[in-house]
Amino acid sequence: MGKKYVVFQIGEGHYAIPLTEVSQIIRHENVTDVPTAPPFVEGVINIGGEVIPVINLRSRFSLSAAEITRKNRVIIVQRQDSRYGVLVDSVREILDLDENSIAPEAASVFGMKAEFVRGIAKIRDNVLVLLDIFKVLSTAPEVSIKE
Amino acid sequence: MTFSGLDERKLLRAFLEESEELLEKLNDNLLQLERDASNPDSINEIFRLTHSLKSESALLGFVRLSELAHHLEDVFDAIRSGSISLSRPLMDAIFSASDLIHEIITRISIGKSDEEVDSRSLIRELKQLAELAPEIGTQVHGAVTLDGAERFGDGELVLGDFQNFQIMEALERGEQIYKLTVKVSEEAEIKYPRVYLVFNTLEKIANVIQTVPSMTVPQDDQLYRQLTVLLSSELDEEEIFKACSVDLIESHELEVWDKASIQEAVSASRGEETARSVAAAQTSGTGRIEGTSIRVDTNKLNEIWQLVGELTIYKAQLSQLHDNVARRKGNESIKGEVERASDSLERITTEMQQAIMGTRMVPIAVLFNKFPRLVRDLSRKLGKNVDLEIHGTDTEIDRTIVEVLSDPLTHIIRNSLDHGLEGPEDRRAAEKEEVGHIMISAHQQGGQVVIEIADDGRGLDVNKIRQKAGITSEVSDEEAVQHIFSPGFSTKEDITDLSGRGVGMDVVATRIREDLKGEVEVRSEAGKGTLIRILLPLTLTILHSLVISCAGYYYAIPVQDIDETVKVLEEEILSEGGGDVYSYEGRAVPLLRLDSVLLGPSEDQHNRSREHNGVVVEQRRGRVCLLVDELVEEEDLVIKPISELLNHRRLFSGVSVLGDGEIIFILDTARIMEIIEFGGFDAI
């Protein structure tokens, strides 16, 4: 038995984060714009009285802006007490990944800096980037995720 | 005794909590004792405290701690019995022991063993000093037995509910509880009449709670060889003794029951709860029985707090719903019902919010109580004679504020002692009383708590401050001294062992202003002294705010920051020195469009209406009039922290959620004014 991952798409790239880091997946609704926030901050969302920042991953990955469609999802990730929403183009599937199918060496893929990559897996001809989402979220806004 | 893992952890936690409280009391009583070495209350209390520390730590296997507590107990046992007196070196050793106990408990709390602590030399010193101390003080009549277990193990006095009740009542009246034992000489052939005489006299001068054997139901005369009487009276020992001057009464023994003994006796008969009430009755000085209290994990309180916060949101949602329903026609009876239900919910939620807020409040005594010790230690170290006065200890304040306030306040007091107060010679030279004074006080004023720290020392050196901060002569002295709070201001002369190595008042001010949303100001007169006044909000979690809208966003401005809301007509706006101003109360107040502050200058000048809503906010830096689109409503907002990610310009002090789920940003007006002062975002 492997570990469960949530697979999502940004642009042409497929990314995965462990299901254990995800608390819920919702549609892009009721996201409030935040004045003065950096451009990649999509806004804030009220979940059970808690105000959670939503990050536009497309923008964080320095990709051109795209219109919000029915396919867009906000993945709520949680670690300890802090929760964040991550806006992605679409959520593909929830996948069982065997340890053996993951190449653990951090490497630069899709032009992304190696430090944000936990490993790489190949699924049905697609390259899947195992993303260190909290590393991405905790990196200062002015630091680029891409090389 | 063995415990399962969980029990042991629970026990340990309970032990740590209790010992913290115990240490605090120990410290208080030691300080009291130092002022008045013959105070029997303090001696008895310390004895009791060390005794329970000894047994509790032994139970949990903390051998070193138990041993140390045991030796302290012995010392106080000897002091109590009058066989030794308190010398200054002994007092110092006792203080060191109390510090070591504190250290050991801290070690235990972080999971370390108490065995690595070396207490031997201190114990040796305690023993030596206790033996060396000469025997002085008045000898108490008869013997005073000390070991509680022995006393109550003999089954002499068995207290029932009625007796306990009498004890509590007596304590409320402020009376002493005595246990008197008289022995009738073997020569007396009939014993009962002898003890009856004693009993009879006692009945006249005191309140007899119980006798063994019973005096009301006569028994076999031989049983009256010895009579034990438990009584309460406001009289002192001497007068009780007089009652025993009866022929053929051979010996008598009188014990004054201290708190510990009463508690032990009462708890042996009735369980912990009553014992606690007794303790409360005695502690409160006036003898009034206080309400019972329990310890609650702050996390649990926070959880309830969060839930109440959510409840207020839904309450607001419901009342909006009700407003919507009310606007429609028909269903009048249902409307009425909805209105009543909505009103009741509103009232209950508000009360609940206040009640739960009450649980967050603690008397500021929890903070102030540590200062007598601090002042004592520091003044001795500095060779200064200091008299400390503390007022308003029952002023209540949010416990989270207390936690943050502790360090800055300590620093201010250290500063007063270290730099403010002169040494004895300087004071004599200045024709001042040799003893320096420090006064710490707290009181509530409106929605704020005011804390003042005053000393009668040499005052601040205004010229030095002017020089260091580069202040021109146009600035008054009163304003110039406020610069000690400016970021980066720390005079080099500050660097001594005592005042925290150069961490000056600027750091104190930052903590108070930024972390506590408070204010701090100083008044000083050369040669006369310094007064530092701190203004703090009662709580940090609920903020009475004005909700405003601006360029499509909702914001809240804390009402405490607002001077007034005004209507500003276009023609009243004057351009002056590159910026807009508005004449307010005869003074030109800088005028700012909130949207341009937050979102950058906007181009659509033509879109301006003739009349604007202005909010005049006042801060230490001065006043500014903020132009906004609409004033929405005043509301009590539950403040939630804002993620760093959303607030890199630190414009907001938090976020909140309105009744309709709308997210609202709370403006940090002090920060906005700082930005204005430095010329906008680009300049900072």
Oligomer: heterodimer
Amount of helix of chain B = 40-55%
Largest interface: A-B, 22 and 25 residues
How far is the first residue's CA from the last residue's CA of chain A?
35 Å
User: Biggest sheet of chain A, strands in spatial order?
Assistant: 8-1-2-11-10-9
Unreliable stretches covering 5 or more consecutive residues of chain A: none
Described by the principal axes of the CA atoms, the overall outline of chain A is: globular
CATH architecture grouping of chain A: Beta Barrel
How many helices of chain A? Answer: 2
Question: What's the layout of helices and strands?
Answer:
The complex is a heterodimer of chains A (147) and B (684).
Chain A: E1 3-10, E2 13-18, E3 22-27, E4 41-47, E5 50-56, H1 57-60, E6 73-79, E7 82-88, E8 90-97, E9 102-103, E10 117-123, E11 126-131, H2 133-138
Parallel strand pairs in A: 2-11, 5-7
Antiparallel strand pairs in A: 1-2, 1-8, 3-6, 4-5, 6-7, 9-10, 10-11
Chain B: H1 5-35, H2 40-59, H3 63-81, H4 88-109, H5 120-132, H6 148-153, H7 161-173, E1 176-184, H8 192-205, E2 207-212, E3 226-233, H9 237-242, E4 249-257, H10 259-270, H11 272-283, H12 298-327, H13 332-360, E5 361-363, H14 365-368, H15 371-382, E6 386-391, E7 396-398, H16 399-420, H17 424-429, E8 436-445, E9 448-455, H18 462-469, H19 477-481, H20 505-515, E10 519-525, E11 529-537, E12 542-550, E13 553-558, E14 562-569, E15 573-576, E16 579-584, E17 587-593, H21 594-599, E18 611-619, E19 622-628, E20 630-638, E21 652-657, E22 663-667, H22 669-677
Helix pairs in contact in B: 1-2, 1-4, 2-3, 3-4, 3-5, 4-5, 7-11, 10-11, 12-13, 15-16, 16-20
